């Protein structure tokens, strides 16, 4: 929607006017939290814009392609109870599912599903694209528009301004993100994707304290190089299960999980090198 009354003044030499768009809610970042925030806003009737640096990687799981587990499984199902999309989307992309900790009391039980991560992303993109009141755009937000301590919108790398009285930041690892591989460090949101550096600097200018949390990602290995005979096979549940309360449970037989454990030698390697981190 173009508001022709809000076209900003341009520098000399520019031949085209940059248009300013009006939204009720802008969500920056289309990971799990961003998708849920944008869908929630759109579903209650708010004109919503979801901005992501790469539409092809919406709701991507780059670390462990699973949903749930102790604590996290409860959150996913609470989101489902509140009308969210994560659990429904999980059921569309599940390849293996189990209820964990069943040897303990029900309070300790935790549902976990292994996911086809590309299918999960494709299905979430589809949901976002067909959602009424929701626009999905590929851009990099570089600055927040703030006047008199009130948010008024965002500016993206291409120069476009999108105005809104509500801006939700769900940048995740992209906000001034860094990748650590051994002793090598470089700027990135995820491997192969740009970090959101300008927005992080803008937040500092606005008086926000910006920190960083580290997370470790297990290495990806070629299954053809693995001796599965030395591992414990864990098949998917033989009881029909689903993540969403709205879906009927299914039994998945095509894929198994193979379990292995660390030992004292593994721990010693960590202890000998942890000071290098």
Automatic annotation (TrEMBL):
The answer to whether keyword Flavoprotein applies is: yes
Any single GO CC term annotated in Swiss-Prot or TrEMBL for this entry: cytosol
User: Keyword Flavoprotein: yes or no?
Assistant: yes
For activity, the cofactor(s) needed are: FAD
Annotated GO MF terms = flavin adenine dinucleotide binding
A Pfam family matched in the record: GIDA
Return the InterPro entries for the record. Answer: FAD/NAD-bd_sf (IPR036188), MnmG-rel (IPR002218), MnmG_N (IPR040131)
**Record's keyword terms, sorted:** FAD, Flavoprotein
Q: Where is the MnmG N-terminal domain?
A: 24-276
GO:BP terms for this protein? Answer: tRNA methylation; tRNA wobble uridine modification
Query: Which SUPFAM superfamilies has this protein been placed in?
Result: FAD/NAD(P)-binding domain (SSF51905)
Please report the name of this protein according to its UniProt entry.
MnmG N-terminal domain-containing protein
């Amino acid at each position: 929607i173009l508001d022709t009354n809000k076209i900003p003044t341009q520098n000399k030499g520019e031949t085209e006017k940059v248009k300013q768009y009006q939204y009720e809610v802008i969500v920056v970042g289309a990971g799990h939290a961003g998708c849920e925030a944008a869908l929630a806003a759109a579903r209650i009737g708010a004109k919503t814009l979801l901005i992501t640096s790469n539409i092809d990687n919406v709701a991507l799981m780059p670390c462990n392609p699973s949903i749930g587990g102790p604590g996290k499984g409860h959150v996913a199902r609470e989101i489902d109870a509140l009308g969210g999309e994560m659990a429904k989307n999980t059921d569309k992309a599940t390849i293996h599912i189990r209820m964990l900790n069943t040897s303990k009391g029900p309070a300790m039980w935790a549902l976990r599903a292994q996911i086809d991560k590309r299918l999960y992303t494709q299905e979430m993109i589809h949901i976002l694209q067909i959602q009424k009141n929701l626009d999905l755009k590929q851009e990099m937000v570089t600055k927040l528009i703030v006047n008199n301590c009130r948010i008024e919108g965002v500016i993206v790398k291409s120069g476009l301004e999108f105005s809104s009285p509500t801006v939700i930041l769900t940048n995740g690892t992209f906000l001034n993100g860094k990748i650590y591989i051994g002793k090598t460090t470089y700027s990135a949101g995820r491997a192969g994707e740009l970090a959101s550096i300008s927005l992080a600097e803008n937040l500092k200018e606005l008086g926000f304290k910006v920190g960083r949390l580290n997370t470790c990602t297990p290495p990806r290995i070629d299954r053809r190089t693995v001796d599965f005979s030395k591992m414990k096979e864990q098949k998917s549940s033989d009881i029909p299960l689903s993540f969403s309360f709205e879906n009927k449970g299914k039994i998945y037989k095509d894929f198994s999980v193979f379990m292995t454990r660390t030992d004292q030698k593994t721990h010693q390697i960590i202890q000998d090198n942890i000071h290098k981190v």
